[in-house]
Amino acid sequence: MTIVALEKVTLFGSRREEDTLLTGLQQLGIMHLVTLRESPGEEAAPAAPAHTRRALQYLLDCPVRRHQVPEDPDFDLATTVERVLENQRRSRELEDSREFVQRRLDDLAPWGDFRLPPEDALAGYRLWFYEVPNYRRHQLGTLTLPWQEVHRDNRNSYVAVIAREEPPPEALPVPRTHTGSIPRSQLRERLQRLAVRLDELAAEREALTRWIHLIHRQLFRAEDDADLARAHHCTLDDDALFAVQGWVPIRDRAAVHDFAAARDLAVLVEPADADSRPPTLLDNDEATAGGEEVVHFYQLPGYRSWDPSRVIFFSFAVFFAMILADAGYAAVLGGIVLAAAPRLGASRRGRRLRNLGLALATTAGVYGVLAGSYFGWQPPPGSLPGVLRVLDTGDFGQMMTLSVGVGLAHLVLANAIVAWRRRGHTAALAPVGWIAALLAGAALYLGLPGAGIVLAAGLAAVAVFSDTRPIHNAGDLLRRAAGGLLGLARVTNAFGDVLSYLRLFALGLASASLAVTFNQLAADAAAAYPGLGVLLEVLILAAGHALNFALAVLSGVVHGLRLNVIEFYNWGISDEGYPFRPFARTEKTLWNN
């Protein structure tokens, strides 16, 4: 749970060997390049054409894949991509056509399979078709034109009217229906031909999947070439020499020196000074690195800040558990994660998310047991699950106290970490003051003696040490006083942030209440309809709990992350950084990515 220490490295070499040296540096893959030019110069080519990525994704989405071809000297990327995209285009067109034909068949079903007579067969008369709602059928009694009902169902009467011209709108209660001139028999034949053609395209797509490996490899190669071209635009050149600069982890210093010594390069190593702004590289153990993925997704801390990944990992698990609030749902979530584990284990990010998912399911399971909720069912008091139940989600006072207490602990932890990082400086007393104020505020609510004094002392520390600039004149004193007042203005933020954690109670209560409600509805249905009621009970339980599970998981993810990346970040992280992106080759096989 650290931000990796970096140093600035500048390499100097012969201009004639620039291409070779940059290629070697790319293979080394440990430097985040920094441009040495005042203007970046000519923009490098895009990493890969968008249509190539679309073609690859289309093949990856194919449900059945062929054996991969590792090498083929006759493979042509442009031709293959063109074939794939043409297959995609034709498949979409035929899918649209099939949907249209099927819709026409459904629309014409009440009219039967008929063919319109030629225009001269009825002496200039034509057929006009109307779908008249049954409750308005009586209005046809005033129609003077000849008409005939050809079909009726529980909603509409299907009427054919004979007239030379389309009857005026006021003659019938509804606008006419456009049936078209193609009979249903021909539409069925067309639908069959479309199905055959779609099967052929699906087989062609499946055959094209044999090239996924080669397309993927050449796509990476194109990205590597584009990165290399961009690296050339970051160097500083003259007639004889070139220089390339970037940030390198201190732990990789030996690798840089070995690289330079093997190629007769001059090396200049500079520490990160106060005026520099290095990128942020996080380093976490894989077991809890799922929190790092959350940090990358939302906001990276600055280089001189601290890594909140592990705190977010565990606090997210706790918040998610309090919102899910059911051991049965936690077991279902755990089963889903375990079922997806082999696929998630194929990539580093997938393994991290798998570990995060297992942590969420485990924590939610423990909390569900403590809350005594198993798909909304509560165990009897004398049973083992009943003995393990120590929380009552229906006890508003208990659950609100728990939620606020968790929120206080979360915000106190954020301020404690900030104070620790500022240790040895008077600025550390401001977060210490907030810790005292937060705890004293809770104690004051509980009526504990002496809480008011601690609250006043904490806010005084906030006012005095929120701005720690030296005082040399009256202007400095005024600015420092203004900074203290601005610090005190966060009192309302602190109050609102603590209350924001009440969402844990509210969402957990909603999840538990819905589970109990669906159980009661199912039991009532079973009792009201003997025999059939059992089927209704099963359907209500399955549909109700599936819906409640989906809502609870969604709420747990959204609000569990929100409390971390808004409330916690608001107190613990003040500097935003940008990611460390090593200049490295990405060419690899799809299966190792």
From TrEMBL:
Parts of the chain that traverse the membrane: 311-341, 353-376, 396-420, 432-465, 502-522, 534-554
Molecular functions (GO terms): ATPase binding; proton-transporting ATPase activity, rotational mechanism
Membrane topology type: Multi-pass membrane protein
BP terms from Gene Ontology: vacuolar acidification
Coiled coil: none
Keyword Transmembrane helix: yes
Keyword flag Transmembrane: yes
InterPro entries: V-ATPase_116kDa_su
Keywords, ordered alphabetically: Ion transport, Membrane, Transmembrane, Transmembrane helix, Transport
GO cellular component terms listed in the entry, alphabetical order: proton-transporting V-type ATPase, V0 domain; vacuolar proton-transporting V-type ATPase complex
Location of this chain's protein in the cell: Membrane
Family of this protein: Belongs to the V-ATPase 116 kDa subunit family.
Name listed for the protein in its UniProt record: V-type ATP synthase subunit I
Species: wastewater metagenome
